[in-house]
Amino acid sequence: MTGGRRNFLKTMSAGGLAAVAASGKARAAASGGGTSKVASSVPPIPAAALETAPLEPSESVQTAPSDAALSASARAQPLYGSDYMADCLQHLGLTVIPQVPGSTFTGLHESIVNRGMLREKPLDLLTVTHEEIGVAFAHGYAKVAGDATATIVHSTVGLQHASMALYNAWCDRAPVVCLTGSLTDPESRKNWVDWMHAVSDGPALTRDFTKFDETPRSLPHFTESLVRGYQMAMTPPQGPVVLAIDLNLQERRIAKDEALPSLRKPRISAPQGDSGGVAEAAKMLAQAENPVLIADRTARTAEGFGALIELAETLQAPVIDMGGRLNFPWLHPLNQSFNRGAVLREADVILAMEVQDLSNAVRPAPNARLISLSSYDYYLKSNYQSFQAMPKVDLAIAGDAEATLPALLAALRAAIPRRSRSAIADRGARWAEDRKGQMARARREAALGWSIKPITTGRVWAEVHDQVKDMDWAIVGGCHFEGKWPQQLWDARQHHQYIGDSGGYGLGYLPGAAVGAAYAHRSEGRLPIVFGGDGDLLMAPGALFTAAYHTIPLLYLVHNNGGYHQEIMKVQEQANARARGIARTHVGNVLPGADYAKLGASMGVASQRVVEPGDLRAAIARALEVVASGEPALIDIVSQGR
């Protein structure tokens, strides 16, 4: 048990935990064991007792097991293509695999459950109820774990379901390895469904918003495709890849004397910006009177997070965090994210790091010189225009911002003259004083309407923070539609405490991604929290089943504002512009009276519904006891629109 987990559990009463744990076991029994891990009752088999796929050129795929207790028949058992594939996934570290079962990858499915899941370091096959949830799970997991994982989907219809989530991962620059089944040989199609689900070029469906795709024709080709796909997914700008795996290749028996390629997981080194460009950027920043730093998907790791803090403090420059990741501490004196207009009007030099919507991010800054440091310039597709409008840039440095920051810091320290240190310190003091006023204003605004109904989003976030502030918490979804109150009220000082939003704003992302991120936090003993919309939950409610079935601790707060509130506002804006009134603008936009606590309970999640503001605090405390026991908990909060 980690220190974070111990600290989390210390805050809960022993009696409450015991009661919650007992209720969880009762729910599991009532649902046929639905909250237990699938393989929890199966003892792991030592790796030596299994035939292994080759890791070194001298090894053979038919290496004999060394476990003397293994029966002769087991030792003589043949290997199949999918056995080799499962071993490759394991050796590449793609061990967390959410999937919806499909007939075009039954070979791989069987190899995972009867081979990959029985090792000392097993593959973990997770049951999800929709392919979009599976990809979103992998998306959220990757942002927390800092590494890609795989998801498997059925051919054609499965990839069609997955496509929206792959687009989110594309826009969010998240590494996801999506394996889709395939059945390309007409002679192997057994019935009319096989024909309807067959496709000559399945990955064509998602080619415009993936970094790489391939349909391997042999096992050596599979090895090369998997490693190349992983490398492409993980190299900045990161993104999803798709491999179509033929069922016949999965089911092909491997000959005893057949040699298959070795597999080695590559260490990915991100591309750094050109040294000349970095030196020029450092000179511009050092000479600026009012430099400004803007970051979006800049800090992928704790090291990147720390480097950005060091850069800001060296310059004593204000930072605007666009929120793609947690790039900068939320309550830091230089964090001016909620004072963007005033900061940019004074700016004379702006450094924008991994900022996707650069044109909007730097507005208004009519007289500032703009430096762009981004890996986006390395890889761009023009059909889906996630690249946004292009502003005038004075210096464009193609390079991963996080990887380039150390060199930029070194060049900046050398470029800042000694005589400027006093002015730099004064600049920082001015921004720190301004920040105090912003924080006081945010606290006052969060308290507005404290006791009104529906419950304000400011109160929800304030009440939650009051009970979790001393725990190792992590917000596993965006906060844009819930007022961005955590960014204004919570003290986020660690990189893992926020992972940003979906990227493409495709509804249905949040439930699966929150569960995937919570799964990644589970081994660290952290407290995952998400406050997400009712419309988003209704797009992918089955994610709650996965959380319960696989006992993934997560505090899921439902922002139950009764509908698609952003669209209500948009239709109202149109109606007002046309002088038609807003009396009917709710039609097609509202979801009245839905009880998401009942929905959560039906999935095996401990759930509550809160309507009265005065009931919120106790409901949060009860839910935290459930999460501390190792299970998910949901609170349906009837809340304001934003």
Task: Explain how this protein is built.
InterPro entries: DHS-like_NAD/FAD-binding_dom (IPR029035), TAT_signal (IPR006311), THDP-binding (IPR029061), Thiamin_PyroP_enz_cen_dom (IPR012000), Thiamin_PyroP_enz_TPP-bd_dom (IPR012001), TPP_enz (IPR045229), TPP_enzyme_TPP-bd (IPR011766). Residues 81-194 form the Thiamine pyrophosphate enzyme N-terminal TPP-binding domain. Residues 278-408 form the Thiamine pyrophosphate enzyme central domain. The structure is a single chain. The chain contains 24 helices and 16 strands. Helix 4 (81-92) crosses helix 5 (106-114). The model is unreliable at 1-71 (pLDDT under 50). Helix content is 41%, strand content 13%. It folds into three domains: 34-251, Rossmann fold; 275-439, 3-Layer(aba) Sandwich (Rossmann fold), CATH 3.40.50; 448-638, Thiamin diphosphate (ThDP)-binding fold, Pyr/PP domains (Rossmann fold), CATH 3.40.50.970. By secondary structure, the protein is an alpha/beta fold.
List keywords for this structure.
41% helix, 5-stranded parallel β-sheet, flavin adenine dinucleotide binding, thiamine pyrophosphate binding, 642 residues, 16 strands, Acetolactate synthase-1/2/3 large subunit, single chain, Rossmann fold, alpha/beta, disordered N terminus, TAT_signal, DHS-like_NAD/FAD-binding_dom
CATH topology category name of the largest domain = Rossmann fold
Task: Give the overall silhouette.
Answer: globular
- Average pLDDT reading: 89
How are the strands of the largest sheet arranged?
8-7-9-10-11
**What's the CATH architecture name of the largest domain?**
3-Layer(aba) Sandwich
Low-confidence stretches: 1-71
Count of β-strands: 16
